[in-house]
Design goal:
This protein is α/β, with parallel strands linked by helices. The protein has one domain: Rossmann fold (3-Layer(aba) Sandwich), CATH 3.40.50.980. It has five helices and seven strands; from the N terminus they run E-E-H-E-H-E-H-E-H-E-E-H. A hairpin with a 5-residue loop joins strand 1 and strand 2. It is globular. It catalyses: a medium-chain fatty acid + ATP + CoA = a medium-chain fatty acyl-CoA + AMP + diphosphate. InterPro entries: AMP-dep_synth/lig_dom, ANL_N_sf, Mitochondrial_ACSM.
């Protein structure tokens, strides 16, 4: 018999939850995520996306998807304040922002400023839904 291929991606959190993707799965998921960014979010090559996420599997998936679509990913730490987020949005002219359920309130408070004038879409990573946000997992 053949031994199974090494995973392309293997993520384990503190609780022991695991996500393993083969190269084929990572390729397929990253194509789907690139399509979400291009179609559902209306982004084009050269547009910028700010991702304010902890190190969850979707963080790496977005990295690969942005490379595929020619979209510039601007990573942000989950420790950013509303003022930091607003500044980054304004300086980068980002057209999309991605965050999770926990960080969404801080992001929304930053969006009330002038930094959000270029935003076309907001993506949330998580199970829940939020008014005005697209859910990445549902769109995948």
């Amino acid at each position: 018999g053949r031994k199974p291929a090494n995973p392309a991606f293997w993520w384990v959190n503190d609780e022991g939850d695991e996500v393993k993707w083969s190269f084929e799965e990572l390729g397929s998921l990253s194509r789907k995520a690139a399509n979400v960014l291009s179609e559902a979010c209306g982004l084009q090559r050269g547009d910028r996306v700010v991702a304010i996420l902890p190190r969850v599997p979707e963080w790496w998936l977005l990295n690969v998807a942005c490379m595929r679509a020619g979209i510039v990913l601007i990573p942000g730490t989950s420790q950013l304040t509303a003022k930091d987020i607003s500044y980054r949005l304004q300086a980068s002219k980002a057209k999309c922002i991605v965050t999770n359920d926990t960080l969404a309130p801080a992001v929304e408070s930053a969006l009330s400023g002038t930094g959000s004038q270029f935003l076309k879409s907001k993506l949330i990573v998580g199970q829940g839904s939020r008014n005005g946000w697209l859910n990445l997992k549902e769109l995948l």
